Amino acid sequence: QVQLVESGGGLVQAGGSLRLSCAASGRIFSSYLMGWFRQAPGKEREFVAAISWSGDGTNYANSVKGRFTISKDNAKNTVYLQMNSLKPEDTAVYYCNSRNGAIDYWGKGTLVTVSS
Questions:
Q1: In which order are the strands placed within the sheet that holds 68-73?
Q2: Distance CA 15, CA 17 (A)
Q3: Average model confidence (pLDDT) for the chain?
Q4: Mean pLDDT, residues 88-114
């Protein structure tokens, strides 16, 4: 089992920045892929960014490339999402995800609201 707890969400004006954190605990292995997803009101959950525990490879949705940066601190078992140049369309609940093969673990999410 893996437990994930997100923090760092809030209200920010367009053009502003936020940093989300995801604290992971439990049976975390180097093969895990860690990521962020988001779900806006009335929309399906979508992929935002991902990073592997064991390496530095990252992947981003086109909509956030150049604005968001995913990073990790293995010693703290924490994954971060630095969000810059935020837009109103970034408003959503952001979920931390841990994936090992076909097994997914999810946090409860943190709300990010970007005002225009």
A1: 2-7, 18-26, 78-83, 68-73
A2: 7
A3: 94
A4: 95
